[in-house]
Amino acid sequence: MTADKAPSLTILGVYSYSADKVAYARFIRELIDSFDPPSFSEEVKDILRHGGRGDEIVPLTPEEKQDWEDELHSHMDDAAVLEVLLENPDAGFNPHDFAQIDPTNPKDHSEMAWNEMFLTADGETEIETDYRQRLPAANKYRVVFVIHRWETDLPLRSSYGELQAPAVQPLSERPWRLVSYDPPEPSDRAIQ
Fold first, then answer.
1. Running DSSP on this structure, what letter comes out for residue 189?
2. At 177, which helix (H) or strand (E)?
3. pLDDT tens digit string along 74-86?
4. What are phi and psi of 133, to 5 degrees?
5. Which of 191, 192, 184, 188 is nearest to 72 (CA)?
6. CA–CA distance, 65 with 67 (Å, rounded to integer)
């Protein structure tokens, strides 16, 4: 943090998972495969076996895979991945402040940042953080996150005020490679 320069946020891009149908279908398929017990690491399989599941690791049924696909589509079809450059952050920055509030919905329903991750300023490398260091120590880095049910005509709220987003574009190769997606848990789904 530097005292002589004010914090600034620049939205570098707003990307759609579903704009490129082929890449999106592949991403969904790979994500479902990652939930299928036979694809788990041997370490995880051992934990499952010793946790009362027995020796057999049972694959997902076609119906379970279809349920996962339907669930993922319900969250991701209208979602946007946002990539924001943060320069000179101060103590007032919180990535959880990124939100899109729809004033036409009852109680000003908001869509909050989901699956936040940090990248180096060039956008090529993930910056790992943990519970002790919640934010990168860098003076300039990118924040990437998902907003479910993205509305192109609404601004994005942030720790430093409202930002106008550029037009939605298809997700390019770099974000597909770097960005992960963790679906909301059942308790999270109820409040979205």
1. H
2. helix 173-178
3. 999 999 999 999 9
4. -115, 90
5. 184
6. 5
What distances in angstroms separate CA 138 from CA 40, 78, 172, one per listed residue?
A: 34, 32, 25
- As a whole number of Å, the CA-based R_g of the chain is 19
Spatial distance between the Cα atoms of 58 and 83, rounded to a whole number of angstroms: 38
- Categorise residue 157: left if φ over 0, alpha if ψ from -120 to 50, beta otherwise: beta
Instruction: Please list, in sequence order, all residues whose beta carbon lies within 8 angstroms of the beta carbon of residue 98, skipping any fewer than 6 positions away.
Output: 82, 84, 112, 113, 116, 143, 145, 147, 156, 157, 158
Distance of CA 172 to the CA centre of its chain: 15
Angle at 152 between CA 151 and CA 156, to 5 degrees: 75
Which H helix or E strand runs over 28?
helix 21-35
Contacts of 130 (CB under 8 A, 6+ apart): none
- Terminus-to-terminus CA distance in the chain, angstroms? 34
Segment 23-49, tens digit of pLDDT: 999 999 999 998 888 888 888 777 777
Q: How far apart are CA 159 and CA 177, in angstroms?
A: 28
Contacts of 112 (CB under 8 A, 6+ apart): 96, 98, 99, 147
